[in-house]
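Quick illustration, no need to memorize.
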Amino acid sequence: MAESDSLGPRLKEAREARGVQLRDIATTSKISMAALEALERGDFSRLPGGIYARSFIRSYAEHVGLDPEETVRAFNAEMTRREREAARVRTRPVISADDRAFLERQQRALRALRITAIVVAALLLGLLIWQAWVWWPRPETSVSEGPAAPPASPEVRVPMTPPPPADPVPARSDTAAPPDPERLTVAFEVSDECWIQVTADGLVVLQRILAAGEQQRYTVEREIVLDIGNTGVFTWTINGQPAQSLGRAGRHRQVTVTRENAQTFLR
């Protein structure tokens, strides 16, 4: 509604058309000049509330020749319209530029946090998969008197490097020498591809995949540790005597053989 259409300016226009002074209305109606000036400006907040405001409106309308009841209805309608507009303004939040910038920063931080969480979860999952791959299959408890050697990754292929022939030697590959009662001789053969690690007197002398039909023979002074990836294809002898089967096909096992416990592995 335009300012000229509101009640205050129309009341002032009617008063000036009749040549009535505002002071004359204040004197006759006992309404203060400040309240009458506020009424003509449309500032109804300066008027008393309820029935008193309507009484002021009737008195003013009578002095300027307007219909008092129609003027009161116009006043009530304008007050209702202003209250509705004020309610709409109160319910519509005002977002400043600073608030909008803060919300945008919060959204960017939330997106960055989500991306970081996804990356960390992916890294953790990859680490778990890598650990499972490296440590599978887990070795069984050794039937030996000495500590078992840690399992090695089946992907590590290290060619056998026998120790130098000079004495004393911790272990040597010997395909022809007869058994020595002061030493322990272990010979084995695989009927299919098989990953094997041999630790002789604390020194790793074999760590690779053997081909089908491949044979190995080692002589040690104290102990020999055998880590076998597939016991079903592994056959062996101890000091020339047949030894027991270490398990069925597909089974992984680690054993430690010494001169003291060698008899427990024989058939």
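Residues 97-135 form the longest helix (39 residues).
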